[in-house]
Amino acid sequence: MCLLRLPRITQPLEKEEEEVAALMEQIELEKSHYSDHEIRKLEEEEALRRKKESLYDEDEARGKTVIMAQDLEEKWEQRFLRFKAAPRITDADKSNDRTSLSRKLDSNLMLLVKQKIGNQELWLLPQVEWQPGETLRNTAERAMATFLGDHIQAKVLGNAPYGIYKYKFPRAIRTENNVGAKVFFFKAYLQSSDLSQAELKADYLWVTKKELGDYLKSEYLKKVNRFLLDL
Known about the structure:
alpha+beta; two-stranded antiparallel ribbon; elongated
């Protein structure tokens, strides 16, 4: 099961993207109509001008609010100055804690678990052996529950696998009718970053696509990269 935590924030813009965004913002500004607030501000400025020229009718002001548009703008400016955006780089990024979901917020993170295959312990996508009577999707869902418990909130995508990996068993354990195995890959999106109710039952990591090469064997990695997009 390829379980993904989707990005939480947008990726930083490249230089060319920033230039295009600034151009589009300028074009939109030039072609846009005045907002209600801008119209109100213009009306108030006109009223002040007429008042200075002794053309202002006091009756016009009766029943109207005394809070001017300029006062609102100053209030909004003060509120904006007090606002502090959350950092893009988290504590988990700084410590390179790959067991945390609070890292690489602008990228996909994929779950890897350490599993014993034969006499080796390998980092793999969560997988379990197919049982008679199960669909492939049932097996993929069981793999997710096996390593994360039944409380995980995730959306499985489709009923057909996204990829397949074939391998042969070591000669010492091959039989005439059982020379190898097939691994079918399904994809799922994590729908909640709160894993406090999850029952993680193995060593695990949350890694980006670029970090997969630090853990997966080359042939296995090739098959995963075929269906894994990191846009």
